[in-house]
Amino acid sequence: MRRRLMIMPRMITITTVITTMATTITTTNIATTSITTTITPMLMTTSEPAAVDASRGMNADEAAALYRLMTWLSPAFPVGAFSYSSGIEWAVEAGDITDAASLRDWLAAMLGGGSGFCDAVFLAQAHRAASAQDEAGLREIAELAAAFVPSRERQLETSTQGRAFIEIARSAWACDGLESMVAACGGGMVYPVAVGIVSAGHAVPLEPAIHAFLHAVVSNWISAGARLVPLGQTDSQRILASLEADVADTAKRALEASLDDLGSATFRADLASLRHETQYTRLFRS
Question: CATH top-level class for 60-278?
Fold first, then answer.
């Protein structure tokens, strides 16, 4: 009896700690079985609200936004993204990219410290200006984004894709205010600005728009790298999976950034896009 009286208070104390602090404690012998039996109902109770929230589903606006993002940023959307490598073709020829690991490192740098981050900032700023119907601000953003591209071929890449994106949106995804937003940009516009204003015009929330945009950009880079190195489909998917956290971090930084935070530190990638202009044998336009 004395031994039982000493164990029971100890079990109650451990159970209380687990309940209030969510701490995992491993015990031995009889105490393990007793504690597990005691706390199982509590764990089931705390998980019930999450199950209820998960079953709620999307409302009509959320479903429409998801459908449009999946369409606009799909590889099948005809903006010609498959024609461009953003300088990756030269990097492969120069020996900077030789396998899946070096491709992954190159893309992580481009994403977090180069054109990936800058384009995400321009998308965010264009989306906010278009949502606020700030035509003067939208023109300033569009002009800065066009001037920020480091090479002639990258300029061709992003302006051609931006123009194609707008033309298709006009034809198949027209919305109120789109024409005035396009006119405010003063004619030509680069790809991230085009995605930003069309997303804003359709009331697609900014955060998922940035995530979808970066996913599409990274997927296109990987597709180019896979053809050039070359890599198999499994390696390509491993690279995409490994960049998930990089995409999330870049999107978060871009959402919090202003135009004053723009900047690139991927000098080798910028040189690759410049040197691709005179590369003798080329499969891609950039």
Answer: mainly alpha
